[in-house]
Fold this sequence. Notes:
Strand content: 5-15%
Radius of gyration: 23 Å
Structural class: alpha+beta
Number of domains: 2
Distance between the termini: 43 Å
CATH topology of the largest domain: Beta-clip-like
Order of helices and strands: EEEEHHHHHHEEEEEEHHHHHEHEEH
Strand order of the largest sheet: 3-9-8
CATH architecture of the largest domain: Beta Complex
Helix content: 25-40%
Amino acid sequence: MANAEMFKCIELPGRGRALVTTRRVRAGEIVLKDSPSLLYVVSTAFERFCGNCLRICPDSDLADCGLVKFCSAECCVTFPKDLCSALGQLKETEFDSEEENQARFLLAAYHLQLVSPEEFEKLLLLEGEGKVDDEGVSKLHGFVENAVKSWPWTSQRKLSPKLTTDLLAKEARNGFGLMAPCEKIGERSVRGYGLYTTAAFINHECLPNCCRFEYVDKPGKSNTDIFIRAMHDILPETEICISYFPVNWPYDLRQDKLEKEYGFKCSCERCDTEQGWSDGEGEEGEEEEELQDQDESSLEKVVGQLQLKASSFPNEEEKNGEAEVEEVYAEEDDDFHHAMFFVKYLCPVDDCGGTMAPIPQELDLKQEKSGDDDGDLFLTMECNMCGHIRTGDEFRKDLEENSILE
């Protein structure tokens, strides 16, 4: 599960519970490998993906309930029959796709209470508290209450409108979307969601030091585990952070998403800088939008916009654990510190928008061969969205061609 020796869970002022490093973490290290407490396939994808493991299963038949498929006989046997039966009752409802997704989650959550009360209690410790007077929640709770009444409860059952609202709030705050393969570059949809009770304590940062990887369609067990991987070296006593959305989202979109779905406004150094851009008018504001646009992901495009924005970056002192970039810029160019983040960590594939992190094998080879402890600028990187691999030599060549590296 977790590499527990790497981090501790503590309460941070203004941040809530958080994971903080207990030792130096090297670029490419797996900080956390976490398994889901529960999974569910979304209503728009149940005919394409396995209801048990979320792998692709385009040619299999639907189960008896008509609302779940399985990729193998093993998954068919493993999936709980009483949960399948409860899912079948969704056909009698008039739920829209969002309500059906919420119902699928609630059935999975209450079934977890049935088969693993200890894991269910862990869900209840996650952030999120709902409002009981929500009419939509009342409708969902009525459906769930009827759907689970025939389950073989052997202990005191917890089932109430308040618990249902709280579960929905916890899922909204803490659920991890497991993505379907790219159908076209830049277009990916969610195949299902999982709740990961350790990874849920990782907070957001607009310039994160870690990113999440998943390999749902890989063979073997544990295919729905998620991997939190260090993007660069991280010092001890540093908060482990990921971005809750693609790192190249513009300021206004990031703030809107964080406020509506997670209940806070971000005031990190990047947001403070880009808020100044957003407040500006004219060509500079347009240039900033181009820099942050999701379609502008190649190194050439990013570099071109960085040159235009040179005067817009305030002085910043390097944060704990941030990758050093002295090899790229002279001291007088420290203003470009967070701009260089995009050059190094934004996937160079056009329209991808994924985040790059060193692959763990490359880190091991590098340390074995040279014992180099001076940085991670030219490690082999992997994109967490499209899977693109970029070698250190390729990155060096790109920097030289764009006159970033002398």
